[in-house]
Each structure stands twice: as C-alpha cells, then as structure tokens.
Design a protein that fits this description.
This protein is an alpha+beta fold and 101 residues long. It has one domain: TATA-Binding Protein (2-Layer Sandwich). It contains two helices and six strands; from the N terminus they run βαββββαβ. It has a six-stranded antiparallel beta sheet with strand order 2-3-4-5-1-6, covered by helices on one side. The protein is globular and about 30 Å long. It starts with 7 loop residues before the first strand and ends with a strand.
C-alpha cells in the first residue's frame, strides 16, 4: 500500500448529498464513524470523508482524504483518486460539485 503521498481536497455539492444513499447506489462499502464522518473503501483504497457543512444524510461540503491506497487504485496519484470519488458521487446523486480547496 502507498501511504507517503496522501491527498486531501474539499468539495461543495449542489444540491446536498445523502451520503449513505449515494454509497449504497454506487455499491461502495462505508463505515459511519460519527454524524459528520465516514470511512470509505473504494477500489481497495481507504478514504476518510469529513463533512465540513451538513451531516451524513445532507452533506454540502466534504473534506475527502486518501488515507491509504494501492498503486493501481485510481492511478498512483491520491488527488486523481479523490477527484474520481467526487465525480462518481456527483453523477450518482445528480449533484454538481466544485473543488473549493
């Protein structure tokens, strides 16, 4: 597993996302840690998602961070993996997204 280059990005979604519903639709495994945090397993990568604005069922702004990933999960670049996750969530939930940091 690759852990030396971790990625982190904040995205805003409009309209807000229902994360459990979105993950279920995508067939993504997740563990809700708190009302504002989930750990996601996506293409063998471990991703931390913290809600900066909202809650799990009504998330507007998300901090998405790759905690660990194998070299082939979305390429070798954690930033590409984060972008892929944000895009898939947006498409599935029919929501627009914008990276804000």
């Amino acid at each position: 597993m690759v852990t030396d280059e971790q990625g982190l990005a904040r995205y805003r979604f409009t309209p807000n996302l229902d994360l459990p519903e979105t993950f279920t639709a995508l067939g993504i495994e997740y563990l809700d840690v708190s009302p504002t945090r989930v750990i996601v397993i996506y293409t063998r990568a471990i991703i931390n998602i913290e809600i900066a604005d909202g809650r799990l069922d009504n998330a507007r702004a998300l901090d998405i961070e790759v905690l660990d990933h194998p070299p082939k999960a979305g390429g070798d670049n954690p930033t590409e993996l984060i972008t892929m996750v944000a895009k898939r969530m947006s498409t599935t939930a029919d929501s627009d997204y914008q990276q804000i940091s």
